[in-house]
Automatic annotation (TrEMBL):
GO molecular function, one term: glycosyltransferase activity
Domain of life: Eukaryota
CC terms in the record's Gene Ontology section: Golgi membrane
Record's protein name: Glycosyltransferase family 34 protein
Source organism (scientific name): Cochliobolus sativus (strain ND90Pr / ATCC 201652)
One of the protein's GO biological processes: protein N-linked glycosylation
Region (Disordered): 1-27
Entry keywords, A to Z: Glycosyltransferase, Membrane, Transferase, Transmembrane, Transmembrane helix
Family under the similarity heading: Belongs to the glycosyltransferase 34 family.
Length: 360
């Protein structure tokens, strides 16, 4: 075998003693005074930066939950100022992807004032994650994983899901008012701490267009079970897709004790028959002062027109729906609801009774 004539790396780049001396004369010149000052400046800056990063105190306290006391004015400029470094422990979530639709973008934007007043972070999914309507579950699982990976004191406590076809009508209503007091008895040997999902029913059963979900391991298991329902039961009938899956899984003994149903119109109300009709008594219909309106049905294909009409009302200067919290019936109804559950009354009966009341 002939020896290779290719020069080696070492032979190409090695230096003999004379070459080293010559190389040093070219590259090892004494640094000028300006160069020395420059290097010292960089060194000082680096040391200062390291000191700042390692000695800046970090607060171990979690941001406080913002007060849910009634706002006495409907003008956001006259509400108590909020410190921007504090955030609510409730985060909102929704999804809107595909071709841009100005109707739905306007509906999502209607939440902006509400988010600002109460310091709610708002998470919006802009890319489809799974086929059909199942991206809702996947996105919520993503948010839950993100929150649960944080230290407990820095996590959100609840997620408030709303479909993109909801218009925020009354920004003075804080989401905190709908949550059960942690220590309060809510029936069935449960307290508010045991409630992990707050939902509403319409005449078809569960409607998951708007609901509260506690950030917890329970929530991960519940959504995972709903998402994988067809994997375990290929013949299950899901009339309303992921909504039916949540209803079926929510009826299982492992999950049902941690779910509370509340009057639909509290935070998942449908539009009233007209904008000028007398106060409605239908359990599903929004009242003046309601938090939002959910435009769930589009059988006639006129949902965009209805949404545009109510969007104009929500944004008008004389919006009669924009009431201070203490001028609505929320506080008295919510207190009564939790009290009656704690006294052992049937949940369905309490929901039916309170839900059918009119608001003048």
């Amino acid at each position: 075998m002939s020896r290779s004539t290719r020069p080696s790396f070492d032979s190409d780049f090695s230096l003999d003693d004379n070459d080293e001396e010559s190389q040093c004369r070219q590259t090892c010149r004494p640094r000028s005074r300006i160069q020395t000052l420059k290097y010292l400046s960089f060194l000082t800056l680096a040391v200062s930066l390291i000191f700042y990063l390692t000695h800046t105190p970090t607060s171990s306290l979690s941001p406080p939950i913002l007060p849910s006391s009634p706002f006495l004015a409907s003008d956001p400029s006259s509400t108590p100022p909020q410190d921007s470094k504090f955030r609510s422990k409730i985060g909102k979530a929704t999804a809107s992807f595909g071709p841009k639709d100005t109707t739905y973008e306007a509906a999502i934007s209607s939440h902006h004032t509400h988010d600002t007043i109460h310091s709610y972070p708002h998470f919006i999914l802009r890319e489809r994650m799974l086929p059909g309507l199942w991206s809702k579950h996947a996105f919520l699982l993503t948010l839950l994983g993100t929150e649960l990976s944080k230290p407990a004191e820095h996590r959100l406590h609840w997620l408030f899901w709303h479909d993109r076809d909801t218009i925020l009508m009354n920004p003075n209503v804080p989401l905190e008012v709908f949550l059960p007091p942690p220590e309060k008895e809510v029936g069935g040997n449960r307290t508010g701490r045991d409630v992990n999902l707050i939902v509403t029913n319409d005449r078809h059963g569960l409607n998951n267009g708007v609901f509260f979900l506690r950030v917890s391991e329970w929530a991960v298991r519940f959504l995972s079970a709903s998402l994988s329902l067809r994997e375990w039961d290929a013949h299950v009938t899901l009339k309303y897709s992921e909504q039916s899956a949540m209803e079926i899984v929510g009826g299982r003994p492992h999950f049902s004790p941690n779910i509370i149903h509340v009057p639909q119109r509290w935070f998942n109300a449908y539009p009233p028959p007209s904008t000028t009709s007398p106060p409605p008594s239908a359990p599903s219909a929004a009242r003046k002062g309601s938090l939002l309106i959910h435009f769930a049905s589009n059988r006639d294909g006129k949902r965009p027109e209805r949404m545009a009409q109510w969007q104009r009302i929500a944004g008008s200067p004389g919006n009669e729906w924009n009431k201070p919290l203490n001028e609505t019936r929320y506080i008295t109804e919510i207190d009564e609801f939790w009290r009656r559950l704690g006294e052992g009354e049937d949940e369905g009966g309490v929901v039916s009774d309170i839900g059918a009341r009119k608001w003048e």
